[in-house]
Amino acid sequence: MLSIAEQVNSGRLVCPRTHAPLQWDDGWLTTADAAYRYPLIHGVPVMMPEAQQAAYLAQEQGKMAIEYQQAGRQPLWPRWVTRWAARDYRSEPSRRAFAQTVAQQPDGALCVAVGGGPFHVHPRLTNLNIGLFANVHVVGDAYALPYADDAVDAFHIEAVLEHLEFPETAVAEMFRALRPGGQVLAVTPFMQHFHAYPNHFQNYTLVGQERLLRRAGFEIRSAGVCVGPTYALTSLNYRFVAEYVHLPLLRQLLLALFAGWALLVRPLDAHLNRRANAHILASTTYVHAAKPLP
Ligand SMILES: C[S@@+](CC[C@H](N)C(=O)[O-])C[C@H]1O[C@@H](n2cnc3c(N)ncnc32)[C@H](O)[C@@H]1O
Asked: 20-72: per-residue pLDDT in tens?
């Protein structure tokens, strides 16, 4: 990943309010006229008003990060078993889109994961998040990205658009900050339960997500299912029990049953994802797009 120092010194990481370049000033990043300044917390620039950041943390107390990190705890069995069990059999076209957007970028490319963390899904990605927790490299708001116009080579935004009350604003911000020819990969839930990180406003159909990006000016390169129908069905089964079955013994029994069922049937998605109607019950869909060249 392009270091924060390189991002600042090259004028790409800028003031989110004025888009003016920043200077280093005794542990702060400041605009040349000193009108705005942003602190670094353990080396992570906090590129938004402190009050906004404090409000987010107070509201959620890092709930999502805690949940994600608990999921990552070492159990009694080897890690590969957990990784295998958690496989989502995402589609080949969506993997190719990720490779083209992020993995195949040249050294020195600036690739930003909006709403990224606590996982660092690729070493090239700079995780930008409204909360400060593990693997967040820049604290910032999707509605006011701290990047200059045409400064970013690629954006990855996965499982985030559903949490934004104004997704159009975030998409317009990515369009502004992306260089012409730069790519964006959006992956968003369609068939998923309500999950508030910190809130949950909508899910997207495939066509809905495609139109969202097209309306902002993006050219669509490919679009389709990312995580398929069997994953959707099994995770909703599991969630139903976790949410509504309270008798302890029955709950444990059903949870174990559905977990086993999920392991058995999820590989079906490797086949279903190739079907034209896979998006009708997909867990998530993806849209791979580019900012047109002038
Ligand atoms: C469901 S999580 C997805 C995390 C990660 N992208 C992944 O796929 O594992 C949604 C993330 O979006 C972040 N988020 C919500 N609103 C945001 C905003 N306005 N700007 C930046 N990040 C935001 C949340 O803090 C949360 O970490």
From this structure: 999 999 889 999 999 999 999 889 999 987 667 666 655 554 555 556 555 55
Residue 115 Cβ inside 6 Å of ligand 1? The answer reads: yes
Return d(Cα 184, Cα 203) in angstroms, integer. Answer: 19
Burial classification of residue 219, based on how many CB atoms lie within 10 Å of its CB (0-12 exposed, 13-18 middle, 19 or more buried): exposed
In this structure, the residue with its CA closest to atom 27 of ligand 1 is 115
Q: Is 158 in the pocket of ligand 1 (CB under 6 A)?
A: yes
Q: Residue 232 in contact with residue 189, Cβ under 8 Å? A: no
Pick the CATH number of 52-222+286-290 from 3.40.630.40, 3.40.50.150, 3.40.50.80, 3.40.50.920: 3.40.50.150
- 246 CB-near residues (< 8 Å, 6+ apart): none
pTM, 2 dp: 0.92
Structure tokens at 202: 């909508």
Task: Name the 3-class secondary structure at 223.
Answer: strand
8 A C-beta contact, residue 198 and residue 163: yes
In degrees and rounded to multiples of 5, residue 207 shows phi and psi of: -70, -35
| 17-40 burial: b if 16+ Cβ within 10 Å, else e | eebbbbeeeeebbbbeeeebebee
DSSP H or E segment with residue 81? helix 79-85
Where are the extended beta strands (E) located within 164-256?
Answer: 178-189, 219-227
DSSP for 157-189, please give it: EES-GGG-S-HHHHHHHHHHHEEEEEEEEEEEE
- Alpha carbon distance 32, 28 (integer Å): 12
CA distance 131 to 128: 9
Confirm or reject: Cβ of 131 under 6 Å from ligand 1: yes
